[in-house]
Design goal:
- The chain has 18 helices and twelve strands.
- The chain is α+β, with helices and mostly antiparallel strands.
- The protein folds into two domains: 264 residues, no CATH class; 102 residues, no CATH class.
- The strands form three sheets. Strands 2, 4, 5, 6, 7, 8, 9 and 12 form an eight-stranded mixed beta sheet that branches. It has a two-stranded antiparallel sheet with strand order 1-3. The chain has a two-stranded parallel sheet with strand order 10-11.
Length: 420
């Protein structure tokens, strides 16, 4: 009877259009690893140290393949650098991710482009990350909400079902999880997302437009988070002050997460007041252009917007000669690879290439002593003056590269989805 019951249960799943679940765990296989290394073809500084990873259950109920990928260039180094890969079919993706718990409400979705690896200093420092969205569970499936609030990014009728061109055409997706989100906070995040989604035609672009200038964030140190209040008032249909504000994708996600302690059902009146309600708080400290995580090593050290490859390479604990050779690769321009980037990203990369030239000295000098550390200090300060504190798409990933016990660490790397 139990056998017949199992068959019946499986049949019900198939009738519902869902494949039966199976216990799966992240495993390593040398042959598979070699095949994936060729497929990904990424530099080692596009991979993630083991210290960045979220603690996950040992097994998941899913039919997707769960693979531990170890970067070949890190195998003989001290650092455990690679990726957790979810090899997933697009059909039924949202349902499987929700049922397994691999993706959850509040997770940050980073579009990852391996083909950027080695293309030049700008795409290398971005670690191949080009866009940010936020995940939520609705009707038993994972959905996404993105800025711009248009059909390209959110699909027809802004359903957020990964059917928009942005998600239909991408192949890789990093999943970053804010640390310590409670069930109440996830419920609040879902409630804000639901309001933003349902009011998208009213909100975008009249109240919240898309900002293409990643060097013009709304955050200003020491100033109230008025732009988060603006997002909340738009979601609550309170006709926010000012005709419009604009945000880039990662800033929009940051704003939604900043509302995690605010229940829109009970705090609406507070947002209608003059100030920013006390329930609003930063989900992650915006980053300066460079940090002090390499030369300080303290629990309160911070990472910088340009520090991603530096932190990954540092985790390998290589001899100076090998370390410097690898750091130099970050600053080499490869026209054949940069041609694979979109026109917009390619224009930004070409404009930024000469501006980043002094950073190679910073990369190589920051961990040294004497006059080299002094030189790194001056180069670092010049970049900090030129670039405002920010939260670019890559900043969420860079935050995970801080030591696990770091007081500035608020994010963990979950896995990388590979659409098969």
């Amino acid at each position: 009877m139990r056998f017949l019951g199992a068959i019946a249960a499986a049949a019900m799943g198939l009738v519902a259009g869902l494949s039966p679940l199976a216990a799966a765990e992240f495993t390593f296989n040398e042959k598979t690893n070699q095949e994936l290394a060729k497929r990904l073809n990424i530099p080692v500084y596009f991979a993630i140290p083991g210290s960045a990873r979220a603690t996950l259950p040992k097994t998941f109920n899913t039919t997707d393949r769960l693979i531990e990928f170890k970067h070949p260039d890190a195998k003989d180094a001290k650092g455990d650098v690679g990726l957790r890969l979810i090899i997933a079919k697009r059909a039924g993706f949202g349902q499987r991710m929700a049922r397994s718990g691999l993706l959850q409400t509040g997770d940050i979705l980073l579009t990852f482009r391996p083909e950027w690896g080695g293309a030049g200093v700008y795409p290398n420092i971005q670690m191949g990350v080009s866009h940010t969205g936020i995940a939520y569970v609705k009707n038993g499936a994972i959905h996404q909400l993105d800025m711009p609030l248009d059909v390209v990014h959110n699909g027809p009728q802004i359903k957020g079902d990964f059917s928009g061109e942005q998600y239909r055409t991408l192949k890789y997706l990093h999943v970053i999880r804010p640390r310590g989100l409670t069930a109440v906070q996830r419920a609040n995040i879902l409630a804000w997302i639901t309001r933003l989604q349902s009011g998208a035609s009213r909100i975008y672009p009249a109240q919240i437009a898309f900002n293409k200038d990643y060097n013009a964030p709304k955050y200003v140190r020491g100033k109230p988070l008025e732009f988060v209040r603006h997002v909340a008032r738009a979601a609550l249909a309170q006709n926010p002050d000012g005709a419009q504000t604009d945000m880039y994708c990662s800033e929009f996600v940051w704003s939604v997460l900043a509302l995690r302690d605010c229940d829109p059902g009970t705090t609406a009146g507070a947002f209608n007041g003059r100030g920013v309600p006390s329930c609003v708080s930063a989900p992650m400290t915006p980053m300066k252009a460079t940090g002090n995580a390499i030369n300080s090593r303290s629990r309160s050290a911070q990472a910088g917007l340009t520090d991603g490859p530096l932190l990954v390479i540092d985790s390998l604990k290589l001899p100076d000669a090998e370390r410097n050779a690898l750091l130099s690769e970050v600053f080499v321009e490869n026209p054949s690879k940069s041609a694979q980037m979109s026109e917009g990203h390619r224009e930004v990369a070409q404009a930024m290439q000469p501006k980043f030239a002094p950073m190679e000295k910073y990369y190589k000098d920051v961990s040294q002593g004497g006059w080299r550390r002094i030189r790194a200090y001056f180069v670092s300060n010049a970049f900090r003056r030129a670039i405002p504190e920010n939260y670019s798409p890559t900043s969420y990933l860079i935050n995970t590269l801080l030591p696990s016990n770091n007081t500035s660490r608020t994010m963990d790397y979950v896995a990388t989805v590979v659409f098969d």
